[in-house]
Design brief:
It is a single chain. With about 230 residues, the protein is mainly alpha-helical. It is about 80% helix and about 0% strand. Helix 6 packs antiparallel against helix 7 and helix 6 crosses helix 8. The longest helix has 29 residues. The radius of gyration is 18 Å and the shape is globular. The termini are far apart.
């Protein structure tokens, strides 16, 4: 059990270290970073609660695999998850006196995203084992991290450019939702059609890798340009 737990949390710790060491000006207090992490854990719990309470329509109602994938990717994953992350990021961080640099937006958002990813990863890895741990360490956990960087990027602009607060806060939600939705949709639709249209499934998998690399490059560039080393 301890090995599974370690495998679940190892990518989270690695990415936390990455975002922390790239803060070259004024390091954020550890209690604030832990608070942001806790916000991510609470966001994951809230997401599960909302999906349970509101009981979104069952995916089986869609006969077309395309609509199944779109519904599940956006309505059951990207939209509620990113809204929950954004809620706790705003609630815990927006008025903090430590949120005083552009890079802080990225750093705190990344902690929220990784807190969410950490709890989610534990649940998936304890069910699926080490194979799931490896695949999620390569893709799923970094994906949450990248989406959070984009959220934090626009979140910081909303904080320090108050005359465009609503504009940037809107993009702090829209961009992560779109990226998250596309990420999940491609994987889900590829899995649905894998047995009936292998060529298209392979094409989608190739497109997924290109998309993942693109998001990774842009996200890490944001880290470097907003205060990273």
């Amino acid at each position: 059990m301890s090995i599974i737990l370690l495998a679940s949390l190892a990518p989270v710790f690695v990415l936390l270290c990455y975002i922390y060491i790239h803060d070259k000006y004024q390091k954020e207090p550890l209690p604030m970073l832990l608070k942001a992490l806790a916000g991510g854990v609470l966001a994951a719990i809230l997401d599960v609660a909302l999906l349970t309470i509101f009981r979104f329509a069952e995916i089986e109602q869609f006969s077309d695999g395309l609509y199944q994938a779109l519904y599940k990717a956006f309505c059951q994953a990207a939209i509620p998850e990113e809204i929950c992350k954004f809620f706790f990021l705003y609630l815990f961080i927006w008025k903090s006196r430590y949120f005083d640099e552009y890079y802080d937006g990225i750093e705190y958002a990344a902690c929220v995203g990784l807190g969410f990813a950490g709890l989610e990863n534990i649940l998936y890895v304890f069910q699926g084992g080490m194979g799931v741990a490896i695949s999620r360490a390569i893709f799923a956990v970094p994906a949450h991290f990248f989406f959070a960087i984009f959220m934090g990027y626009f979140f910081a602009f909303a904080k320090f450019r108050p005359w465009k607060k609503r504009y940037y806060l809107s993009w702090a939600l829209i961009v992560p939702i779109l990226l998250h939705g596309i990420y999940d949709f491609v994987l889900m639709y590829s899995d649905i059609i894998n047995t009936t249209n292998t060529s298209l499934a392979l094409l989608l998998n190739g497109g997924f890798l290109l998309f993942f690399i693109f998001v990774w490059r842009i996200a890490t560039r944001r880290v470097k340009t907003m205060g990273g080393k």
